[in-house]
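Quick one: examine the sequence and fold tokens given here and explain what the tokens say about the fold. Here goes:
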Amino acid sequence: MDQLEAMRMFVRVVDSGSFSAVAREAGIGQPAVSKQIAALEARLGAQLLRRTSRSLSVTEAGQDFYESAVRLTDDLETAVSRVGRGQINPGGLVRVTVAPVFGRVHLLPRLGEFFARFPEIVVEMVVTDRTVDLVQEGVDVAIHNGPLTDSTLVARKIAATPVVTVATPEYLKRHGEPRSPSDLDGHECITFVSGGAAWPWRFKGKSGEIVHQPKGRLRTNDAEQIRAAVLAGLGLSHTPGWLFTREIASGEVRRILKKYERDPLPISAVHPGGRRLATKVRVFVDFLAEVFAAEPSLRLHQRGRK
């Protein structure tokens, strides 16, 4: 038995609460995971997990061993990364969940540089717009847009994005440019919908928040379609600025109603609380924070009004 690998597998089983989840993550059968844990228990002479057909729980001995195993495996990974010329690259699999368009536009183009720095790390992208249970689904870190509501998670702000109202110059030439949120009533608004309800557009006014209920002939729950519709000149949209970073810079779309923009939304790297971040995950998050800081449309401490 590879005792270190068995310890790592035990930690993952406790974190996820599932033998099958760990088996899927490792690409092996569930019986192989059970066999590893059973061998570890035999080696220690103690029961670590209570298993029934419907539940899995950690024994008192198992909880004590789990805390030690987390420290040992993380300390070993950290020590290995410092050997040699002072910095041997960490390795292993980092599972990242990210929204589809943000991943395509802002993560994938930067991974080449990351892999050049850390050739032993494998990145698996879990692409989805839904909220993911990071522990249950074995995800190391989530790239999250907006405020965080789950207090059991730890968030590090790595970027920020303004919420912008945009349209093509051609659309604005045909229909005129709105000068205030009240002018939007006469315009085609391309609207994001969730659960059948259109998301309102929110602005900052002199006396407080201004809420506009957009109206238009195109509604969609897909950010890529909103992007394509704006570029096709079908109307205005109100979106995170990262969706149109290059087009705003080139002039292909115009950013309007700037003085009514709210404070920027945070973009955070989110991970489960209660344990230290593995070195392979930490260097991935550090890398994203570094490259986003060099991108004017994503760097932190942006001003809401332009």
Remarks:
- The chain is about 35% helix and 25% strand.
